[in-house]
Amino acid sequence: MKAKAKIQNQENLFKSRLDQILNNKHPMFMLANQIDWDFFEKEFGEYYCEDNGRPGLPIRLMVGIHYLKSAYDASDEFVVYTFLENPYWQYFLGFEFFQHNFPLDPTSLVKWRHRIGSEAMEMLLRELLETAQRMKFLKPSDMHRVTVDTTVQEKAIAFPTDGRLYNKGRELLVEKAKEEGINLRQTYSRLGPRASIMQGRYRRASQYKRAKKEEKNLKNYFGRVLRDVERRLTVDQLPEWGYLLEKCHRVYKQKRADKNKLYSFHAPEVECIGKGKAHKKYEFGCKVSVVTTTRDNWVVGIQALHGNPYDGHTLAGAITQAEIMMDGVIDTVFADRGYRGHDYEGDAEVHLAGKKKIPRTLKRWLKRRNAIEPIIGHLKSDNGLDRNYLMGEEGDRINAILAGCGANIRKVLRAILFVPDFIKGKFDQIWQVIKNIGSGKLTAQMQVA
Length: 449
Fold this sequence. Notes:
The chain is of the alpha/beta class. It has helices at 18-21, 27-34, 37-44, 59-71, 76-83, 87-92, 107-134, 162-180, 191-204, 208-232, 238-253, 315-326, 360-367, 372-382, 392-418, 421-438, 445-448, and strands spanning 145-154, 271-273, 283-293, 299-305, 332-335, 349-352.
């Protein structure tokens, strides 16, 4: 159902409200009161229907639980189960009294992400940046200088090898043939797994000739089952089998030096990306562009990019997204040498690392470019960018945006926790008194401060 005006719940005589028993100085409690939840009611209300199906879950509940999921790198199941144990989470999600039952099923999160999509999901990142500005943690002057870099968001797939793909393709064909009632001449359900195990053992023992022989056997088993299935299919069954057969033929025919190879049956969008790392030569997933403020490292833009584009060709889109998120104009961009030959033609000045003969002030800012590297590290270790479990290209984009939201939420919570109250509450008044003293105008504002 579409969003409607809030209805104040009736007071419960036998229960205490959460805002009466919780610590109102807790960072999660304070952040819940600072986020403009009505903004999401207006933006996401159009994705709901008034007169069809079951009433939708509250939008604040769905948005808030995705904030918590990204901030604590939790799965859909874990974030729902932890809801019952944490009253601060319940208050953050808009509940007035302590809840003893699960508010939703974990599968509701999957359905909601499919309904909203990646473009609307960017609103979560935008509102967090506006909240940081309202709380005076993100200054408007800091949003004119940004740092841009790219990384790889790996997909939750097994490391792809030819032998593993051959065996997986054979298993999928046999499984679907059994569901359709097709009797195959031979399924190799015993020889296939054994050859796959021995191939891995031989490679581990550096017995490459034996491993190559087992890999050839796996390909032969796969090809025989594939041809047997095609011979037994009728004309009416071909459309239903078309997608699986296309992927199987693609795996069977691809060579070592081919481009745009298939690395996973359940995630065909996965790409092989080499970033020149000594400890990890190839990564399987998609490229992600990250934009942060140069001074305080707020994530102001993040997007997953498919097709393994050159870093320089991603710069224009990254700056455009960051300007939309901040409702401002970027003046200066700092990037590494991987952005040489970029195609950005906007008004911002782009400075690459290693630049010689530059002013001392600009040189100090350029050194700050290195700070984006640990930010990317925290995005991977703390916010789920290291291994994406969401399905498809849309899942890659949504997971990247949620990772940026999680990084900013953790940053806001740390700022609330460590910035003293008198600075947060009295900063504007103290600053006004300092200006009055400098101009010789001593007023009653000194007494207030």
